[in-house]
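Each lists chain and fold; for instance:
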Amino acid sequence: MNGLIIPEDFRKDQYIVRPLIKRMMAELGKPNANVRVCLNPLLGGVSEALKWEQIAEIIHRYRNMIDLFLLLVDRDGVMGRRTSLNALEKKAAELLPAGRMFLGENAWQEIEVWAIAGQSLPKKWSWQDIQNEVNPKEVYFVPLVRQRGLEREAGNGRRTLGKEAASNYGRVRARCKKDVEALEKRISRWLRG
């Protein structure tokens, strides 16, 4: 099976989403799934990632090679983000050949929360506070990166924290029920046909 992750901006998000989705696929019985990150085009932000023209271009470019397209974006506190993703999924279903799937998911609130979810949290942090924070990247992720001394690595700490989150996938799934667990269930239904 070939999967293509479409992040809103691959330059940093790839370090979190690829290892997590690779592990998710292994948990779903597809340990040898080829999971790639879409590097062309660079979408450069959620507003571009939610444009049908951009998604249609990606689907046209890769539809003969990819079985599962995953659009992964930040929610950023926008209540209607799921509605936008549903509309893209509907249009993609009309475009894709039989047996292929396009799914969109919005991280609650940002992709970086998935990396935090795989960590043992500092004692003064609560998971509920992290989930409720509209800017968890600035309030939680960046301080965690600094505390761990990871600012200079690829993805500004995302490479290490993304790998660690993937290795603690059960914790990520348990903490991120609205997004990671929900996406896993949707992929599982598609895999079962």
Summary: Residues 148 and 157 are 8 Å apart (CA to CA). The first strand starts at residue 2 and ends at 7. The mean pLDDT is 96. The chain has one domain: 2-192.
